[in-house]
Amino acid sequence: MPQPHKIITYSTWVDISMSNTPYNSEEDATLGDIGLREIGKTWAGDWDTQDYRVSPLFGDNSNLPDTLIFVGSEELFYDDINKFVDKLKKDGVNAKLSVGEGMFHIYPVFPISESNQVVGEIQEYLKE
To answer: Residues in domain Alpha/beta hydrolase fold-3 (predicted)?
Structure first.
């Protein structure tokens, strides 16, 4: 199928198996690891939670287009997203990680000044 020219994501859940322990639920104001483990099993359905179709951290991502991922430094998925960006780069994907220092899960969608910075970064990224 045709691929998008670029991918932009916020706080991507790249490992629904939650295998990169420990997860620090106390630092993330929006997520908790116990509930997410159950949600991940439900989301996967009959698939293994480490199947690349539900956990892209475990797949071959070599055909993905340029990718920009936003993550908060205090969010539950921070370590997983860092691992994923490293994997994307190893798979030959032009991947960029933008870290909101002191920020939480999906911070760019909240009406805070840091969101304005994200909008500007996205505008510049799309011009490239």
So the answer is: 3-107
> Can you read off the two tokens belonging to residue 61?
């991502």
From its phi and psi, is residue 40 left (phi > 0), alpha (psi between -120 and 50) or beta?
alpha
User: For the residues of the chain, what is the DSSP string, one character each?
Assistant: -PPPSEEEEES----TT--SPPP-TTT-SS--HHHHHHHHHHHHTTS-TT-TTT-GGGS--TT--EEEEEEETTSTTHHHHHHHHHHHHHTT--EEEEEETT--TTGGGSSSHHHHHHHHHHHHHHH-
Of 2-11, 16-25, 58-67, 102-111, the poorest mean pLDDT is in 16-25
pLDDT digits (tens, 9 = 90+) for 68-97: 999 999 999 999 999 999 999 999 999 999
Give the global pTM: 0.91
